[in-house]
Design a protein that fits this description.
The protein is about 35% helix and about 20% strand. The strands form 4 sheets. Strands 13-12-9-8-7-6-15 form a 7-stranded mixed beta sheet. The protein is an alpha/beta fold.
């Protein structure tokens, strides 16, 4: 039985940065070759970054991607890496018109290629295009109609791209028909809670259906709202996990696989399942001796639920700041739980020395909140200053008569204006502290709480905010470090502190109850009657549904934030702002 040493390069591509991504492919390929790899694979669209969205519709970008691919093949050979086949994703285009999809020749495609000995030896396009949730690939791409099989060291390796294994049939069934010994899948699979468990069951099931080992390589890092968690996996035909990469870390997963020898059948162009045409490429003349021994690839331990979410929030924040050319962030630190959690995330993401916080007390700010903000700064070592807004507030009230909600919101808008002024002056990127519960029901002030370029906890319900704060403090204890978030910040009743003795429960249901209703209405798409039938108070449900429906315009104006749930506010959930339907 031939032996194949496979290297899965779990890297973080940057969208649009072809030069950087090419450098990374070369750098990680070199590491793989030094480890004795005989086949190296990179994630989906690793050359362009993923997702490229409407950049796919720009002819110049498509051609730049195709040109960079050819240059990369030559560069790998020039640097002595050309003997090892490299599978890399890129943005390509169709050679022929697609009447079925009413698309002309030259339309964009989500492609991958095999680079070997200085040449692009085979190219293929993604067959199944996802068009749900955060995906809009039918908007941009034309599907492929081939099953590429590459013969490497006497093993037939079938190739697929991400969604190709999330859908039944297609390249999975075709790989079995072609007698492949390995199904290699390159991926840009975004993170959401518990997806690692779902992903493992998927690859096990598809390996059984393809009747061969399956290798799944995924990217890491963040791109706007999306976070990629890696979690690259290799399983045997029986579903046994042979190797698994860590979550949220760049990593080179190298392992030896004993695989069935390729058959003598060289049939090319054979029509397989789903109308796929078999395309074979032979890269060598048979099996070779296994390279020198290396340490076992191993199975990386899984993160706990809270640790996984925390890693996603930190990864998304770090990526957004760095990839947009910033080094530092600015946060309005009130002493409340939300801004405290955002500050702790930022410290973990980019270091305390790059986190700047401002306390902006008004006449209604409690002493304990001011003290809690200062204490968090002391514990974490971030930059901290206090700028009272009372004089500005009094000046506004002297100029115009404001009462009630207008008076309350003025305080928030003054803080937003001050944050943006400091941002402009000092060059920090502002982080918005709103959580998913507040955004859902509109419990935030436009041009106040919503000010910022990124919202690290935008997709985190308030009840989870408290869980994460406690977990982060406990994690600090396990590491022998100082807990970043003051205990008083966690245990005190939440309040916007915009009027005397205000508490969130004055305006909203208890957060555990509120979040239970919101989860059903938002993630579950359950209507009002279904939620009531599940045992919730009709009056509470009616109130929550009304608040959610009427706050859509506010959410549209909130900055992006890392997606951790099955349905976030943004790419996942797209409802009309002007909408008279009120039955949920």
């Amino acid at each position: 039985m031939p032996n194949l040493r496979l290297a899965l390069s779990q890297i973080d591509p940057w969208v649009g940065d072809l030069a950087r991504n090419s450098d990374e492919v070369v750098r990680w390929t070199k590491q793989a070759v030094e480890a004795g790899a005989q086949l190296v694979a990179f994630p989906e669209m690793a050359l362009t970054g993923y997702p490229v969205e409407d950049l796919a519709l720009r002819h110049s970008f498509v051609e730049a991607s195709r040109g960079a691919l050819v240059e990369l093949a030559g560069r790998l050979a020039a640097e002595g890496l050309g003997e090892v086949p490299v599978v890399v994703g890129y943005l390509g285009r169709s050679e022929h018109a697609s009447p079925r999809f009413n698309r002309p020749a030259g339309s964009p495609q989500n492609c991958a290629a095999v680079l070997h000995r200085g040449k692009v030896v085979t190219r293929f396009a993604k067959h199944h295009l996802p068009n749900y949730g955060v995906f809009d690939e039918f908007r941009w791409f034309v599907p492929g109609d081939q099953l590429p099989v590459v013969r490497v060291h006497g093993v037939d390796v079938a190739l697929a791209i991400c969604e190709d294994i999330w859908q039944d049939g297609g390249r999975v069934t075709a790989a079995r028909e072609a007698g492949a010994g390995l199904l290699l899948v390159i991926n840009g699979s975004p993170y959401e809670r518990n997806k690692d468990d779902q992903r493992l069951e998927l690859v096990r099931r598809r390996a059984a259906e393809a009747d061969c080992a399956l290798a799944y390589v995924n990217m890491v890092g963040g791109q706007d709202e999306l976070v990629f968690d890696g979690d690259s996996i290799v399983v045997g035909p029986d579903g046994e996990v042979l190797a698994r990469a860590p979550q949220f870390e760049e990593h080179l997963l190298v392992l030896d696989l004993d695989l069935p020898a390729a058959s003598s059948d060289h049939t090319d162009g054979l029509l397989l399942s789903d109308g796929l045409h078999l395309v074979r490429t032979e890269l060598d003349d048979g099996p070779r001796a296994a390279p020198a021994a290396i340490p076992a690839a191993g199975i990386a331990p899984r993160l706990s639920d809270e640790a996984e979410i925390w890693a996603a929030l930190v990864s998304g924040t770090r990526a957004y700041v760095a990839k947009n050319g910033f080094r530092s962030v600015l946060i309005g630190l009130s002493g409340g739980i939300d801004s405290a959690l955002v500050a702790a995330i930022a410290v973990d993401a980019i270091g305390a020395g790059n986190v700047h916080c401002v306390s902006m007390p008004s006449r209604y700010s409690s002493e304990h909140s001011k003290d809690d903000a200062a204490e968090l700064a002391r514990r974490t070592g971030l930059h901290f200053r206090t700028v009272p807004i009372a004089p500005m507030f009094d000046a506004y009230l002297a100029a115009t008569e404001l009462t009630g909600l207008a008076e309350e919101n003025l305080q928030s808008r003054l803080r937003g204006t001050l944050l943006m002024a400091i941002s402009n002056q000092e060059g920090h990127i502002v982080l918005a502290p709103g959580n998913k519960s507040e955004l859902a029901v509109g419990y935030s002030t436009l041009y106040g709480d919503s000010v910022g370029a990124y919202g690290p906890i935008k997709d985190v319900y308030k009840s989870l905010v408290f869980r994460l704060a406690r977990w982060r403090n406990e994690e600090a204890g396990r590491r022998g470090e100082v807990a970043p978030i003051p205990e008083n910040t966690i245990v005190k009743p939440p309040s916007a502190e915009l009027r005397p003795d205000q508490q969130d429960t004055d305006s909203l249901p208890d957060y555990d109850l509120l979040d239970s209703v919101l989860t059903r209405y938002i993630e579950g798409d359950e209507g009002r009657d279904a939620i009531v039938a599940a045992g919730f108070d009709p009056a509470v449900v009616d109130r929550v549904v009304r608040l959610v429906d009427t706050a859509e315009y506010k959410r549209r104006q909130y900055p992006p934030g890392p997606k951790i749930s099955v349905k976030n506010f943004g790419r996942d959930r797209r409802l009309p702002i002007t909408n008279r339907w009120r039955r949920g």
